[in-house]
Amino acid sequence: MEVKKICTLGAGTMGSQIAQLAATSGYEVSMYDIEDKFVQGGLNAIKKNLQRFFVEKEKLTQEEANKLLGKIKGTTDLKEAVKDVQVVIESIPENLGLKQRAFKELDELCPPETILASNTSSFKVGAIGSLVKRQDKTIGMHFFNPVGRMRLLEIIRADKTSDETFEVIKDLAVKMGRESITVKDSPAFVANRILHVMHLEAAKMLEDGIASVEDIDKACTLGLGHGVGPFTAVDMTNSMGIAVELGDYLAAELGERYRVSPMVRKKAEAGELGRAAGKGYYDYTQQQ
Hints:
By secondary structure, the protein is an alpha/beta fold. 47% of the residues lie in helices and 14% in strands.
């Protein structure tokens, strides 16, 4: 199947970035969200990104950027959004029930050949697609934020994902300039599961007074060659709360060793979610 048109379900941080990537990769794009303010927010974010990272850096002319933006059609009409699309990439909030309902509705509205992909960062794809009839056409496409810089794409094969569906998505990844890895359907896949365990161990060392936040991060960057340390990674993505939810999910699926410590849970409950919140492991209030 030749992919010509892609629908991104969700116009938030990840949905809008994926829509931009699809457009810059040559595809027609429909970007759906439940309210017009979200759709417009996504379109505005794309416009700013094109201006800042392409036009101002002379990678595109203003005319070329406007043409790219014109390839992305925002809508609050789901039936219109999925018309004539070959692939839908779901990127709505990380809630299993919400994703299951969205996939069921997509299954009812999409053309029979349409592939339903999820950008979930944690849930098993088989669970997300459990209510659809086309389970051979369900698959995971886990992008990383920021999409423009992070080239990894985790392709997750559910038990019933067909070889044809997998090959279409693998080819799509190449055309989008992604480096893909193939992952058996499992909670949190590869990268996030490793990062979660690193965060757990780093938090335990902090609680035990073994080293400071700064020195634990420095050990990972200068000693292990990581781009950023685990505490900085959590703060950058504002994901203290997500770490708690992911830990609870992994604990239920894989065992108690994945549940976060009381310190991490306390920080999440206090709203210390990371950089965007002003405080996480580091204090950003003086930078605002």
